[in-house]
Design brief:
The complex is a heterodimer of chains A (528) and B (410).
Chain A (H helix, E strand, L loop, with lengths): L2 E12 L2 E12 L3 E6 L5 H8 L7 E6 L2 E3 L4 H6 L2 E4 L11 H6 L5 E2 L4 E2 L1 H14 L15 H14 L4 E5 L7 H16 L3 E6 L2 H7 L2 E6 L2 E7 L5 H9 L17 E11 L5 E11 L3 E5 L6 H9 L6 E6 L2 E2 L5 H6 L2 E4 L3 H5 L6 H4 L18 H14 L16 H13 L5 E5 L7 H16 L3 E5 L3 H7 L2 E6 L2 E6 L6 H8 L29
Parallel strand pairs in A: 3-10, 3-11, 6-9, 9-10, 15-20, 15-21, 18-19, 19-20
Antiparallel strand pairs in A: 1-2, 1-4, 4-5, 7-8, 11-12, 13-14, 13-16, 16-17, 21-22
Chain B lengths: L2 H13 L3 H28 L9 E3 L2 E3 L3 H11 L14 H24 L7 H19 L5 H34 L3 H21 L34 H20 L1 H11 L1 H6 L4 H28 L9 H11 L4 H24 L4 H33 L16
Antiparallel strand pairs in B: 1-2
Classes of the chains: A alpha/beta (528), B mainly alpha (410).
Chain lengths: 528, 410
């Protein structure tokens, strides 16, 4: 068959790190090829080499059989390669058409003006040809995330891309939008385009790709036919050993209410209600999950609970005390652990070594900082214990957290927060970017804490995670709880609809009325 | 390898340099700056006129200024000519140490604020306020004591007064930043003007020494000034003050590295979001570190009054602004401030020696000083820049903006 892209023996070194180690990677024309691997496996680096963002340390890049050397993405685009980044590069106040043609606008009057009509026609032609559902005149800020992604794809096609690279395209999409994306990919390959699709999700690679190449630690550990492989095989390739994907969970033995929130409202800087009247309670020994697509107010709610942001109204109680306006430190001291969503900004000081990072949040406690003087020996033991127990690599307490891969950073944070002997653990995306083996370990530890009677507030956009771990599960959409359901009796499809802001008619738990603020307390708590 | 890649590789190399490498780089920069300076001296020497027997000859060409003499005076002269016999502790070497002592405190003042992520341009003003308060406070109390007892009581008293008033003056921009979100660069610069203006008003009016033409306070009694030890008194230097400065270096180092407060300060300085997450009270840390920074500036002022001038006089030298350079040169590290202050002290005191010993114009000596500082500071400066550039480079260039999924995938 015809090979569209061939990367031959690509090695890319960064100071102290080999991101790609002699990787061979070939993609057949007209297929969807998934590049699968854990975070830190080197997927994005490899694609950045292909897209001209990085010079490979050694190895050759062949496009359509000819060796190429790209100095910049501009060269790659000229060679027919387009890349759709995970973080969209669109101008919000401009229209779909303007965004697609930006930088390559059709001109008139000898280049003095943009031929808007011609631009619009081209965009309409393109989207009809590939069966895309986009409104050429809509502003980017008014369209859904899924549509923005289609605009990005159209932009690449407009620039003449034959080979499209999509970097983690599903991370920001609802399950329904993911399906739509996969249909788009099918249509594109049917018309001869070649797709490379970076992901760390097994299921998506199986579902959407023809071929799957698995990277581990910067090496190609196998290219397989998607139709002839299994999830278990792929997981084993990814982590190098068999993993159990299902979580086994004992029935919850719930105790007293540990934390509760009532009618929390948080406004963002524009005055928009990011959290709009949310109430819930978390009991000792239970996992209360909050599912939802990112950006629906989970972050703001989490920060209000943990004391990083003052809610505009509402009341938060922790261990029976009103903590709505108390300091972050007083909440840490009272036994609130927090695995933050943004580990590189919040959870770790990137320039600090792990000894210092293990202290973050505990620097004033009698255990580590008696009389304001830090006990560095004890801090070192503490950091080394976390490294050991949570298998942080490299096992070096003197390494700066910046030098660790994302997954290892996360394991260190999780270890630090779990070892605090907490009453409540607020875990925001605790396994994001973590390898499969560690995910399993973190899940087990989380359930162990639950068995010990710790209350857990779990915020995650990974459905299988929140569904598998939670005893009660709230779905958040546009700042409100759509519903609080029993995750064991709710299907993934029902949750997907809730996440998209719709109430599934066939929902097992009943009620079909539209969401009202007072519903939020449905299975939640007494208003304090 | 493209030029861009090579530039990036150099930056990465700099960012990853070990402590030993950094010292080597700084030393190499110092040597290089002297070589470049020597060329400048030669060129300037060709462009002026002098008699044939005043000139020196290199490569068969005559030059009016001799770079070897210039740099010999600048460095060895500042050290009091240790290799030529007749070295006296009361000579030029004590001038160097006097400058070093004062720069040490202003350098530490700036460094502490820097570590907390605050750019304190106000050390100068805090020093003026501390100096004035020390002078007035000591003058007010001095009639009550005298003799050795007076020295033992008044010198520590003067330092405490300087520290307290400098600290209070530093707390003002701290409070403004913490609670009114006022940029400290602006407020501290403005407070410098206010300090100078108010000091001028007071010592030209109510507190003016009636017997002096200058705007100054009544001189402090002899027993209220720093006693000299080992080094004679002619150059206004006291070893006790230097010892106190070295103690301050150790103290600040301990504070930053071994206390919970220091941990809070360092965390806030490099990653405020993480500090907030770790329960650090941002407002309190800002106020506390600027107060402490101001106190160190105030102590510099107290030293200047009780060791050098013996009175408060308007037209205060720019030790506070020099402290900014000292701190940057030292990478804002208290231990480094000691070395940087010494280098600065040598250059300051050496400048006057060069002027006495040669015909080289003072402007040219200023250029040489500037070159040395520029060269020595540049590697650190590029390290700071390099950190940013290579940070951006190590995260895949804008491929995934840290959003859900694989923000660390590379």
């Amino acid at each position: 068959m015809d090979t569209a892209v061939h990367l031959d023996g690509i090695t890319k070194r960064f100071p102290g790190v080999v991101a790609n180690d002699n990787v061979d990677f070939a993609v057949e024309r007209g297929t969807v090829h998934a590049l699968l691997g854990e975070n830190g496996a080197g997927k994005t680096t490899l694609m950045n080499v292909l897209y001209g963002l990085y010079d490979p340390t050694s190895g050759r890049v062949l496009v359509d059989g000819a060796e190429r050397s790209f100095e910049s993405p501009r060269d790659a685009i000229d060679a027919g390669i387009g890349m759709i980044h995970q973080h969209f590069m669109l101008v919000d106040p401009m229209t779909v058409t303007e965004n697609i043609t930006l930088g390559n606008e059709p001109e008139k009057w000898g280049g003095l003006a943009v031929d808007r009509a011609a631009a619009r026609d081209t965009v309409v032609d393109l989207s009809e040809r590939y069966g895309f559902d986009v409104d050429p005149d809509a502003r980017i800020e008014d369209v859904s995330v899924g549509e923005q992604q289609r605009v990005e794809i159209l932009k690449a096609l407009y620039r003449g891309a034959d080979i499209l690279i999509l970097d983690e395209p599903t991370a920001v999409l609802t399950p329904q939008e993911v399906e739509e994306l996969f249909e788009v990919l099918e249509e594109l390959t049917a018309q001869g385009k070649t797709i490379i699709f970076i992901t760390h999700k097994l299921g998506e690679a199986m579902r959407a790709a023809d071929d799957i190449t698995v990277l581990r630690d910067g090496r190609n550990v196998g290219t397989v036919d998607a139709a002839e492989t299994t999830r278990e095989d792929l997981a084993e390739l990814m982590v190098g050993r068999e993993v159990i994907l299902d979580v086994e969970k004992s029935p919850a033995e719930t105790g007293d209410v540990v934390a509760s929130a009532s009618e929390i409202v948080v406004e963002d800087e524009r005055g928009v209600r990011a959290v709009d009247g949310v109430s819930f309670e978390v009991r000792a020994g239970e996992v209360f999950g909050i599912a939802g697509v990112d950006g629906n107010g989970q972050s703001e709610l989490t920060e209000a609970v943990t004391g990083l942001e003052l809610p505009d109204s509402g009341r938060i109680e922790f261990l029976g005390d009103d903590v709505t306006e108390t300091s972050r430190r007083s909440r840490i001291d009272a036994g609130m652990s927090y695995i933050p969503e943004d580990r590189q900004d919040r959870g770790l000081v990137m320039d600090f070594d792990l000894v210092e990072n293990g202290l973050l949040g505990s620097q004033h406690t009698p255990e580590f900082g008696p009389n304001g003087r830090i006990d560095w020996n004890h801090s070192r033991e503490h950091a080394e214990a976390i490294i050991d127990e949570y298998d942080v690599r490299p096992p070096n307490a003197d390494a700066t957290s910046e030098s660790l891969s994302g997954g290892n950073q996360q394991k260190f944070i999780v270890g630090r927060e779990f070892d605090r002997d907490p009453e409540l653990v607020v875990a925001a995306h605790p396994t994001r970017g973590v390898d499969v083996g560690s995910i399993e370990f973190i899940h087990e530890r989380l359930l162990e804490l639950r068995a010990q009677g710790v209350a857990v507030l779990l915020i995650s956009s990974k459905l299988e995670e929140v569904q598998g771990l939670s005893d009660r599960l709230a779905v958040m959409y546009e700042g409100e709880f759509m519903d609080v359901v029993d995750p064991a009796t709710t299907t993934e499809e029902q949750l997907g609809l809730l996440m998209a802001g719709e109430h599934p008619d066939e929902r097992a738990t009943g009620s079909e009325e539209s969401p009202q603020p007072e519903r939020n307390a449905a299975s939640g708590g007494e208003h304090a | 390898m493209s030029v861009r890649d090579r530039g990036r590789a150099v930056l990465e190399r700099l960012v990853g340099a070990s402590a030993t490498e950094r010292i080597l780089i700084s030393t190499a920069a110092l040597v290089l700056s002297i070589l470049v300076g020597a060329v400048l001296v030669l060129i300037a020497g060709r462009m002026t006129t002098c008699t044939a027997n005043e000139a020196v000859y290199y490569f068969g060409t005559g030059f009016c200024y001799d770079p070897i003499v210039v740099f010999d005076r600048l460095f060895l002269g500042a050290l009091g000519d240790p290799f030529s016999g007749g070295w006296s502790p009361d000579g030029q070497f004590s001038v160097t140490l006097r400058e070093t002592t004062l720069l040490l405190f202003t350098g530490l003042s700036v460094a502490l604020a820097f570590r907390a992520g605050i750019f304190n341009i106000g050390t100068q003003g805090q020093m003026v306020v501390g100096a004035l308060a020390t002078a007035l406070g000591v003058l007010w109390v001095s009639p009550l004591v005298s003799g050795v007892v007076g020295t033992v009581l008044l010198v520590p008293f003067g330092i405490v007064v300087g520290a307290v008033f400098g600290g209070l003056y530093g707390a003002i921009p701290g409070l403004l930043k913490a609670y009114a979100d006022a940029n400290e660069v602006i407020t501290t610069i403005m407070l410098n003007f206010i300090a100078t203006g108010v000091a001028l008003y007071l010592v030209s009016g109510a507190f003016k020494d009636p017997e002096s033409a200058a705007n100054q306070t009544v001189p402090l009694p002899e027993y209220a000034q720093f006693p000299t030890v080992l080094f004679g008194g002619r150059q206004d230097f006291s070893l006790i003050a230097l010892a106190f400065g070295i103690l301050a270096i150790g103290g600040l180092y301990y504070l930053l590295e071994h206390t919970a407060f220091g941990y809070d300060v360092r965390t806030s300085g490099i990653q405020p979001d993480a500090a907030e997450y770790g329960g650090v009270d941002a407002a309190r840390t800002i106020v506390a570190s600027l107060t402490l920074s101001g106190a160190l500036g105030g102590i510099a002022g107290a030293m200047y009054v009780m060791m050098v001038l013996g009175t408060f006089q308007t037209g205060f030298p720019d030790y506070g602004f020099d402290g900014i350079t000292v701190s940057i040169l030292a990478g804002n590290n208290p231990l480094g401030v000691g070395i940087a202050a010494l280098l600065f002290g040598v250059l300051k005191s050496g400048t006057t020696v060069v002027q006495f010993a040669t015909d080289v114009p003072p402007q040219l000596v200023g250029v040489l000083r500037g070159l040395i500082i520029l060269f020595v500071a540049m590697p650190e400066f590029f390290r700071l820049i390099g950190k940013r550039v290579t940070d951006a480079g190590s995260k895949p260039v804008a491929t995934d903006g840290g959003r859900p999924g694989g923000e660390d995938d590379e």
